[in-house]
UniProtKB/TrEMBL annotation:
It holds the Pfam family Bac_transf. Belongs to the bacterial sugar transferase family. It comes from Deinococcus aerophilus. The chain crosses the membrane at residues 21-44, 56-76, 88-107, 113-132, 250-273. PANTHER family: COLANIC BIOSYNTHESIS UDP-GLUCOSE LIPID CARRIER TRANSFERASE (PTHR30576), UNDECAPRENYL-PHOSPHATE N-ACETYLGALACTOSAMINYL 1-PHOSPHATE TRANSFERASE-RELATED (PTHR30576:SF0). This is Glycosyl transferase. Keywords: Membrane, Transferase, Transmembrane, Transmembrane helix. InterPro entries: Bact_transf (IPR003362). The keyword Phosphoprotein does not apply.
Length: 433
Protein backbone atom coordinates (compact mmCIF):
# COMPACT_ATOMS: atom_id res chain seq x y z
CA UNK A 1 0.00 0.00 0.00
CA UNK A 2 2.86 2.40 0.74
CA UNK A 3 3.90 2.21 -2.91
CA UNK A 4 0.56 3.76 -3.85
CA UNK A 5 -0.06 5.96 -0.83
CA UNK A 6 3.22 7.75 -1.38
CA UNK A 7 3.11 10.80 0.90
CA UNK A 8 6.51 11.99 -0.27
CA UNK A 9 5.65 12.12 -3.97
CA UNK A 10 6.83 15.13 -6.02
CA UNK A 11 3.33 16.57 -6.42
CA UNK A 12 4.49 20.04 -7.38
CA UNK A 13 6.52 18.80 -10.34
CA UNK A 14 3.65 16.47 -11.33
CA UNK A 15 1.24 19.41 -11.32
CA UNK A 16 3.62 21.44 -13.49
CA UNK A 17 3.98 18.52 -15.88
CA UNK A 18 0.19 18.18 -16.12
CA UNK A 19 -0.20 21.88 -16.88
CA UNK A 20 2.40 21.58 -19.64
CA UNK A 21 0.54 18.62 -21.10
CA UNK A 22 -2.74 20.54 -20.92
CA UNK A 23 -1.20 23.38 -22.92
CA UNK A 24 0.24 20.82 -25.32
CA UNK A 25 -3.27 19.39 -25.79
CA UNK A 26 -4.57 22.88 -26.63
CA UNK A 27 -1.70 23.36 -29.08
CA UNK A 28 -2.53 20.02 -30.72
CA UNK A 29 -6.18 21.11 -31.07
CA UNK A 30 -5.20 24.38 -32.75
CA UNK A 31 -2.55 22.75 -34.91
CA UNK A 32 -4.97 20.13 -36.19
CA UNK A 33 -7.58 22.80 -36.87
CA UNK A 34 -5.16 24.81 -39.02
CA UNK A 35 -3.79 21.73 -40.78
CA UNK A 36 -7.27 20.46 -41.62
CA UNK A 37 -8.28 23.95 -42.71
CA UNK A 38 -5.55 23.85 -45.36
CA UNK A 39 -6.61 20.31 -46.33
CA UNK A 40 -10.24 21.44 -46.54
CA UNK A 41 -9.32 24.37 -48.80
CA UNK A 42 -7.38 22.03 -51.10
CA UNK A 43 -10.10 19.35 -51.20
CA UNK A 44 -12.88 21.86 -51.97
CA UNK A 45 -11.33 22.28 -55.40
CA UNK A 46 -12.61 18.80 -56.30
CA UNK A 47 -16.26 19.80 -55.73
CA UNK A 48 -16.14 22.70 -58.17
CA UNK A 49 -16.12 25.57 -55.64
CA UNK A 50 -14.30 28.69 -56.84
CA UNK A 51 -11.33 30.39 -55.15
CA UNK A 52 -13.11 33.31 -53.44
CA UNK A 53 -16.05 31.15 -52.38
CA UNK A 54 -13.67 28.45 -51.21
CA UNK A 55 -11.73 30.88 -49.03
CA UNK A 56 -14.95 32.22 -47.49
CA UNK A 57 -16.17 28.67 -46.76
CA UNK A 58 -12.88 27.70 -45.07
CA UNK A 59 -12.91 30.92 -43.03
CA UNK A 60 -16.41 30.13 -41.76
CA UNK A 61 -15.30 26.58 -40.97
CA UNK A 62 -12.30 27.79 -38.95
CA UNK A 63 -14.47 30.18 -36.92
CA UNK A 64 -16.90 27.33 -36.20
CA UNK A 65 -13.95 25.11 -35.19
CA UNK A 66 -12.65 27.65 -32.65
CA UNK A 67 -16.16 28.24 -31.30
CA UNK A 68 -16.74 24.49 -30.99
CA UNK A 69 -13.49 24.12 -29.04
CA UNK A 70 -14.60 26.74 -26.54
CA UNK A 71 -18.07 25.18 -26.36
CA UNK A 72 -16.70 21.67 -25.80
CA UNK A 73 -14.31 22.67 -23.05
CA UNK A 74 -16.80 24.88 -21.22
CA UNK A 75 -19.52 22.18 -21.20
CA UNK A 76 -17.26 19.21 -20.58
CA UNK A 77 -17.76 17.58 -17.20
CA UNK A 78 -14.22 17.10 -15.92
CA UNK A 79 -13.43 13.77 -14.36
CA UNK A 80 -10.30 12.56 -12.64
CA UNK A 81 -9.01 10.18 -15.27
CA UNK A 82 -10.53 11.82 -18.37
CA UNK A 83 -9.18 15.36 -18.18
CA UNK A 84 -8.66 16.09 -21.85
CA UNK A 85 -11.48 14.24 -23.53
CA UNK A 86 -13.11 17.57 -24.30
CA UNK A 87 -10.90 17.55 -27.40
CA UNK A 88 -12.82 14.55 -28.72
CA UNK A 89 -16.04 16.54 -28.81
CA UNK A 90 -14.67 19.50 -30.78
CA UNK A 91 -15.04 17.84 -34.22
CA UNK A 92 -18.50 16.54 -33.25
CA UNK A 93 -19.84 19.93 -32.22
CA UNK A 94 -18.10 21.52 -35.21
CA UNK A 95 -19.64 19.04 -37.66
CA UNK A 96 -23.24 19.64 -36.60
CA UNK A 97 -22.80 23.43 -36.42
CA UNK A 98 -20.95 23.55 -39.76
CA UNK A 99 -23.44 21.23 -41.48
CA UNK A 100 -26.38 23.43 -40.43
CA UNK A 101 -24.47 26.58 -41.44
CA UNK A 102 -23.47 25.19 -44.82
CA UNK A 103 -27.04 24.11 -45.59
CA UNK A 104 -28.34 27.54 -44.60
CA UNK A 105 -25.80 29.23 -46.90
CA UNK A 106 -26.42 26.85 -49.79
CA UNK A 107 -23.06 25.04 -49.60
CA UNK A 108 -24.64 21.58 -49.70
CA UNK A 109 -22.07 20.27 -52.21
CA UNK A 110 -19.43 20.43 -49.48
CA UNK A 111 -21.36 18.27 -46.96
CA UNK A 112 -19.91 14.83 -47.94
CA UNK A 113 -16.42 16.33 -47.86
CA UNK A 114 -17.24 17.89 -44.49
CA UNK A 115 -18.19 14.50 -43.03
CA UNK A 116 -14.95 12.91 -44.29
CA UNK A 117 -12.87 15.78 -42.93
CA UNK A 118 -14.38 15.57 -39.46
CA UNK A 119 -13.97 11.80 -39.38
CA UNK A 120 -10.24 12.24 -40.05
CA UNK A 121 -10.15 15.02 -37.45
CA UNK A 122 -11.73 12.75 -34.84
CA UNK A 123 -9.26 9.94 -35.54
CA UNK A 124 -6.25 12.26 -35.33
CA UNK A 125 -7.41 13.70 -32.00
CA UNK A 126 -7.99 10.21 -30.60
CA UNK A 127 -4.44 9.21 -31.57
CA UNK A 128 -2.98 12.41 -30.08
CA UNK A 129 -4.87 11.90 -26.81
CA UNK A 130 -3.60 8.33 -26.61
CA UNK A 131 -0.01 9.60 -26.67
CA UNK A 132 -0.78 12.38 -24.17
CA UNK A 133 -2.47 9.84 -21.88
CA UNK A 134 0.72 7.78 -21.80
CA UNK A 135 2.73 10.88 -20.84
CA UNK A 136 0.39 11.85 -18.00
CA UNK A 137 1.83 11.81 -14.45
CA UNK A 138 -0.25 10.17 -11.70
CA UNK A 139 -3.20 12.19 -10.42
CA UNK A 140 -2.69 13.46 -6.89
CA UNK A 141 -5.53 13.18 -4.39
CA UNK A 142 -5.25 14.97 -1.08
CA UNK A 143 -6.29 13.30 2.17
CA UNK A 144 -6.72 15.24 5.40
CA UNK A 145 -4.00 14.86 8.00
CA UNK A 146 -5.36 13.36 11.20
CA UNK A 147 -7.96 11.26 9.33
CA UNK A 148 -7.49 7.82 7.80
CA UNK A 149 -6.05 8.22 4.29
CA UNK A 150 -8.41 5.68 2.78
CA UNK A 151 -11.61 4.28 4.35
CA UNK A 152 -11.34 0.79 5.82
CA UNK A 153 -13.86 -0.54 3.30
CA UNK A 154 -12.04 0.91 0.30
CA UNK A 155 -12.61 -0.98 -2.91
CA UNK A 156 -9.82 -2.06 -5.25
CA UNK A 157 -10.53 0.84 -7.60
CA UNK A 158 -9.15 3.30 -5.03
CA UNK A 159 -5.74 1.66 -5.38
CA UNK A 160 -5.46 2.68 -9.00
CA UNK A 161 -2.02 2.78 -10.68
CA UNK A 162 -2.68 6.33 -11.89
CA UNK A 163 -3.67 7.68 -8.48
CA UNK A 164 -1.36 8.93 -5.75
CA UNK A 165 -2.40 10.13 -2.31
CA UNK A 166 -0.77 13.02 -0.44
CA UNK A 167 -1.43 14.52 2.98
CA UNK A 168 -2.95 18.01 3.18
CA UNK A 169 -3.29 20.12 6.31
CA UNK A 170 -5.69 22.93 7.29
CA UNK A 171 -2.64 24.81 8.53
CA UNK A 172 -1.12 24.76 5.04
CA UNK A 173 -3.97 25.67 2.65
CA UNK A 174 -1.41 26.28 -0.10
CA UNK A 175 -1.11 22.52 -0.50
CA UNK A 176 -4.48 22.55 -2.30
CA UNK A 177 -2.71 23.96 -5.36
CA UNK A 178 -0.60 20.80 -5.49
CA UNK A 179 -3.44 18.28 -5.74
CA UNK A 180 -6.02 17.43 -8.39
CA UNK A 181 -8.78 16.64 -5.91
CA UNK A 182 -9.53 15.62 -2.33
CA UNK A 183 -10.58 12.19 -1.11
CA UNK A 184 -12.89 12.73 1.86
CA UNK A 185 -13.68 9.97 4.34
CA UNK A 186 -17.33 10.64 5.16
CA UNK A 187 -17.17 8.24 8.12
CA UNK A 188 -14.82 10.55 10.03
CA UNK A 189 -15.95 13.67 11.90
CA UNK A 190 -14.26 16.81 10.55
CA UNK A 191 -12.79 19.40 12.87
CA UNK A 192 -13.82 23.03 12.20
CA UNK A 193 -10.50 23.89 10.56
CA UNK A 194 -10.73 20.78 8.36
CA UNK A 195 -14.27 21.73 7.37
CA UNK A 196 -13.06 25.21 6.41
CA UNK A 197 -10.37 23.66 4.21
CA UNK A 198 -12.97 21.51 2.45
CA UNK A 199 -15.26 24.50 1.89
CA UNK A 200 -12.31 26.48 0.52
CA UNK A 201 -11.61 23.63 -1.92
CA UNK A 202 -15.23 23.62 -3.10
CA UNK A 203 -15.22 27.40 -3.59
CA UNK A 204 -12.10 27.12 -5.75
CA UNK A 205 -13.83 24.27 -7.67
CA UNK A 206 -11.34 21.64 -6.58
CA UNK A 207 -13.13 18.26 -6.79
CA UNK A 208 -14.01 16.71 -3.43
CA UNK A 209 -14.72 13.00 -3.66
CA UNK A 210 -16.17 10.56 -1.20
CA UNK A 211 -14.96 6.99 -1.34
CA UNK A 212 -18.17 5.84 -3.02
CA UNK A 213 -18.16 8.56 -5.69
CA UNK A 214 -14.49 8.01 -6.49
CA UNK A 215 -15.05 4.26 -6.67
CA UNK A 216 -17.95 4.89 -9.06
CA UNK A 217 -15.88 7.23 -11.23
CA UNK A 218 -12.97 4.82 -11.51
CA UNK A 219 -15.04 1.69 -12.11
CA UNK A 220 -17.75 3.20 -14.34
CA UNK A 221 -20.53 1.45 -12.41
CA UNK A 222 -22.82 2.24 -9.49
CA UNK A 223 -23.03 0.31 -6.23
CA UNK A 224 -26.64 -0.90 -6.15
CA UNK A 225 -26.42 -1.51 -2.39
CA UNK A 226 -26.28 2.24 -1.73
CA UNK A 227 -29.46 3.12 -3.65
CA UNK A 228 -32.86 2.60 -2.01
CA UNK A 229 -35.28 1.01 -4.44
CA UNK A 230 -38.38 2.60 -2.92
CA UNK A 231 -36.92 6.11 -3.17
CA UNK A 232 -36.57 5.97 -6.94
CA UNK A 233 -39.33 6.92 -9.32
CA UNK A 234 -39.16 7.44 -13.06
CA UNK A 235 -40.95 10.77 -12.67
CA UNK A 236 -37.89 12.07 -10.77
CA UNK A 237 -35.65 11.30 -13.75
CA UNK A 238 -35.43 14.03 -16.36
CA UNK A 239 -32.75 14.85 -18.90
CA UNK A 240 -33.08 17.55 -21.53
CA UNK A 241 -30.46 15.63 -23.48
CA UNK A 242 -33.08 12.96 -24.24
CA UNK A 243 -34.66 15.19 -26.90
CA UNK A 244 -31.29 16.07 -28.41
CA UNK A 245 -30.30 12.42 -28.32
CA UNK A 246 -33.35 11.39 -30.33
CA UNK A 247 -32.57 13.98 -33.00
CA UNK A 248 -28.94 12.84 -33.17
CA UNK A 249 -30.05 9.21 -33.52
CA UNK A 250 -32.22 9.95 -36.55
CA UNK A 251 -29.73 12.34 -38.16
CA UNK A 252 -26.77 10.01 -37.74
CA UNK A 253 -28.72 7.00 -39.03
CA UNK A 254 -29.76 8.89 -42.17
CA UNK A 255 -26.19 10.10 -42.73
CA UNK A 256 -24.87 6.53 -42.37
CA UNK A 257 -27.46 4.94 -44.68
CA UNK A 258 -25.26 5.13 -47.83
CA UNK A 259 -22.71 2.99 -45.97
CA UNK A 260 -25.13 0.81 -44.00
CA UNK A 261 -27.36 -0.30 -46.89
CA UNK A 262 -24.61 -1.86 -49.07
CA UNK A 263 -23.03 -3.46 -46.00
CA UNK A 264 -26.36 -4.93 -44.88
CA UNK A 265 -27.01 -6.19 -48.40
CA UNK A 266 -23.66 -8.00 -48.38
CA UNK A 267 -24.31 -9.55 -44.96
CA UNK A 268 -27.80 -10.61 -46.07
CA UNK A 269 -26.35 -12.47 -49.07
CA UNK A 270 -23.81 -14.22 -46.85
CA UNK A 271 -26.54 -15.36 -44.44
CA UNK A 272 -28.74 -16.51 -47.33
CA UNK A 273 -26.04 -18.63 -48.98
CA UNK A 274 -24.80 -20.04 -45.66
CA UNK A 275 -28.00 -21.00 -43.86
CA UNK A 276 -30.90 -20.07 -46.15
CA UNK A 277 -34.06 -18.28 -45.18
CA UNK A 278 -35.15 -16.49 -43.09
CA UNK A 279 -32.38 -13.94 -43.31
CA UNK A 280 -33.75 -11.74 -40.53
CA UNK A 281 -34.61 -12.76 -36.98
CA UNK A 282 -37.39 -10.93 -35.13
CA UNK A 283 -37.85 -11.17 -31.39
CA UNK A 284 -39.90 -9.37 -28.75
CA UNK A 285 -37.81 -7.24 -26.38
CA UNK A 286 -38.57 -4.75 -23.61
CA UNK A 287 -38.12 -1.10 -24.55
CA UNK A 288 -38.44 2.31 -22.93
CA UNK A 289 -40.96 2.49 -20.07
CA UNK A 290 -41.28 -1.31 -20.22
CA UNK A 291 -43.16 -1.23 -23.53
CA UNK A 292 -42.46 -4.33 -25.67
CA UNK A 293 -41.28 -4.03 -29.26
CA UNK A 294 -39.92 -6.34 -31.97
CA UNK A 295 -36.17 -6.15 -32.45
CA UNK A 296 -34.64 -7.20 -35.79
CA UNK A 297 -31.26 -8.85 -36.35
CA UNK A 298 -29.55 -10.93 -38.99
CA UNK A 299 -30.16 -14.57 -38.13
CA UNK A 300 -27.03 -16.11 -36.62
CA UNK A 301 -28.54 -19.28 -35.12
CA UNK A 302 -30.27 -22.35 -36.48
CA UNK A 303 -33.95 -22.01 -37.40
CA UNK A 304 -35.07 -24.04 -34.35
CA UNK A 305 -32.82 -22.23 -31.87
CA UNK A 306 -35.74 -21.37 -29.54
CA UNK A 307 -37.67 -24.64 -29.71
CA UNK A 308 -36.96 -25.14 -25.97
CA UNK A 309 -37.77 -21.53 -25.06
CA UNK A 310 -35.56 -18.44 -24.53
CA UNK A 311 -32.02 -19.14 -23.30
CA UNK A 312 -28.78 -17.19 -22.82
CA UNK A 313 -26.16 -17.68 -25.52
CA UNK A 314 -23.04 -19.38 -24.18
CA UNK A 315 -19.44 -19.69 -25.35
CA UNK A 316 -19.36 -22.35 -28.07
CA UNK A 317 -23.17 -22.39 -28.33
CA UNK A 318 -24.09 -25.14 -30.81
CA UNK A 319 -27.12 -23.15 -31.98
CA UNK A 320 -24.84 -20.50 -33.55
CA UNK A 321 -23.89 -21.13 -37.18
CA UNK A 322 -20.21 -20.73 -38.24
CA UNK A 323 -21.00 -17.57 -40.21
CA UNK A 324 -23.25 -16.43 -37.35
CA UNK A 325 -20.32 -16.66 -34.93
CA UNK A 326 -18.31 -14.31 -37.15
CA UNK A 327 -21.21 -11.86 -37.47
CA UNK A 328 -21.79 -11.86 -33.70
CA UNK A 329 -18.10 -11.39 -32.93
CA UNK A 330 -17.91 -8.20 -34.98
CA UNK A 331 -21.51 -7.11 -34.20
CA UNK A 332 -22.57 -7.22 -37.85
CA UNK A 333 -25.77 -9.05 -36.89
CA UNK A 334 -26.93 -5.87 -35.13
CA UNK A 335 -26.93 -3.69 -38.27
CA UNK A 336 -30.70 -4.06 -39.03
CA UNK A 337 -31.43 -2.49 -35.65
CA UNK A 338 -30.88 0.92 -37.20
CA UNK A 339 -34.45 0.32 -38.45
CA UNK A 340 -35.52 0.10 -34.80
CA UNK A 341 -33.69 3.38 -34.23
CA UNK A 342 -35.65 5.11 -37.02
CA UNK A 343 -38.97 3.78 -35.68
CA UNK A 344 -38.18 5.18 -32.23
CA UNK A 345 -38.06 1.84 -30.40
CA UNK A 346 -34.31 2.05 -29.88
CA UNK A 347 -31.42 4.48 -29.70
CA UNK A 348 -27.96 3.99 -31.13
CA UNK A 349 -26.59 4.05 -27.57
CA UNK A 350 -28.36 2.75 -24.47
CA UNK A 351 -28.84 -0.37 -22.34
CA UNK A 352 -29.26 -3.50 -24.45
CA UNK A 353 -32.96 -4.55 -24.62
CA UNK A 354 -33.67 -7.82 -22.84
CA UNK A 355 -36.06 -10.57 -23.83
CA UNK A 356 -39.48 -10.24 -22.21
CA UNK A 357 -39.24 -13.59 -20.40
CA UNK A 358 -35.91 -12.71 -18.81
CA UNK A 359 -36.85 -9.10 -17.99
CA UNK A 360 -39.94 -10.18 -16.04
CA UNK A 361 -37.83 -12.49 -13.86
CA UNK A 362 -35.06 -9.93 -13.39
CA UNK A 363 -37.47 -7.23 -12.25
CA UNK A 364 -38.62 -9.56 -9.49
CA UNK A 365 -35.18 -10.77 -8.40
CA UNK A 366 -32.80 -7.83 -9.09
CA UNK A 367 -33.36 -4.51 -7.29
CA UNK A 368 -33.42 -1.41 -9.53
CA UNK A 369 -33.58 -3.50 -12.71
CA UNK A 370 -36.52 -1.41 -14.02
CA UNK A 371 -34.37 1.76 -14.02
CA UNK A 372 -32.68 0.62 -17.24
CA UNK A 373 -36.07 1.08 -18.95
CA UNK A 374 -36.08 4.81 -18.21
CA UNK A 375 -34.15 5.40 -21.44
CA UNK A 376 -34.42 3.87 -24.90
CA UNK A 377 -32.46 0.64 -25.31
CA UNK A 378 -29.47 0.83 -27.62
CA UNK A 379 -27.54 -1.03 -30.29
CA UNK A 380 -24.45 -0.51 -28.14
CA UNK A 381 -24.10 0.68 -24.57
CA UNK A 382 -21.89 1.35 -21.56
CA UNK A 383 -22.30 -2.20 -20.21
CA UNK A 384 -21.52 -3.78 -23.58
CA UNK A 385 -18.21 -1.96 -24.05
CA UNK A 386 -17.09 -2.55 -20.46
CA UNK A 387 -18.42 -5.99 -19.60
CA UNK A 388 -19.65 -7.70 -22.74
CA UNK A 389 -22.43 -10.26 -22.92
CA UNK A 390 -24.22 -11.37 -19.72
CA UNK A 391 -24.81 -15.12 -19.63
CA UNK A 392 -26.41 -15.56 -16.17
CA UNK A 393 -28.12 -13.70 -13.34
CA UNK A 394 -24.86 -12.82 -11.59
CA UNK A 395 -23.43 -11.20 -14.72
CA UNK A 396 -26.77 -9.46 -15.31
CA UNK A 397 -26.49 -7.80 -11.88
CA UNK A 398 -23.00 -6.59 -12.79
CA UNK A 399 -24.33 -5.39 -16.13
CA UNK A 400 -27.09 -3.47 -14.35
CA UNK A 401 -24.45 -1.57 -12.35
CA UNK A 402 -23.03 -0.28 -15.64
CA UNK A 403 -26.51 0.44 -17.04
CA UNK A 404 -27.44 2.40 -13.91
CA UNK A 405 -24.22 4.42 -14.26
CA UNK A 406 -25.25 5.23 -17.84
CA UNK A 407 -28.74 6.36 -16.80
CA UNK A 408 -27.29 8.44 -13.96
CA UNK A 409 -24.65 10.15 -16.13
CA UNK A 410 -26.62 10.35 -19.40
CA UNK A 411 -24.87 12.93 -21.57
CA UNK A 412 -23.37 13.57 -25.00
CA UNK A 413 -19.90 13.20 -23.50
CA UNK A 414 -20.63 9.69 -22.25
CA UNK A 415 -22.29 8.71 -25.53
CA UNK A 416 -19.24 9.80 -27.50
CA UNK A 417 -16.97 7.85 -25.17
CA UNK A 418 -19.13 4.77 -25.80
CA UNK A 419 -18.79 5.30 -29.57
CA UNK A 420 -15.00 5.16 -29.30
CA UNK A 421 -15.07 2.14 -27.02
CA UNK A 422 -17.55 0.46 -29.39
CA UNK A 423 -15.11 0.83 -32.28
CA UNK A 424 -12.48 -0.82 -30.11
CA UNK A 425 -14.95 -3.56 -29.18
CA UNK A 426 -15.81 -4.26 -32.84
CA UNK A 427 -12.14 -4.46 -33.82
CA UNK A 428 -11.30 -6.86 -30.99
CA UNK A 429 -14.55 -8.88 -30.84
CA UNK A 430 -14.70 -8.23 -27.06
CA UNK A 431 -17.57 -9.83 -25.14
CA UNK A 432 -19.18 -11.69 -28.06
CA UNK A 433 -21.10 -14.99 -27.64
Amino acid sequence: MRAILDFSSPVRSASRERRRLNWLAVAVDLGLLLLLGVLFWWALGFVQIGGAERLRLVRVWLIIGVFSGLLSRSHFQRTLLQRRQASLYIPVWAFFIAALTFMALGWTAALPLLLSLHTVWLILIAVALWFLHRMDPPLCLGVLSGAPAVPDNAGPQLFHPRLRYVLISPHQPGTLSQVDGILLNTDVYLQPDQQRLIEHARVTKLPVWSKNLLDEELSGKVSLDLVHRDWLDETTFYSSYMLVKRGLDVALTLVLLPVLLPLMGLVALVVLFNSGRPILFWQERVGKDGVPFRIVKFRTMTRDSERSGPAFAQHGDLRVTPVGAFLRKFRLDELPQFWNVLTGDMSIIGPRPEQWAFAADFEESIPLYATRHWVRPGITGWAQVNQGYAADVGQTVEKLRYDFYYVKHLSLQLDLLIVFKTIQTILTGFGAR
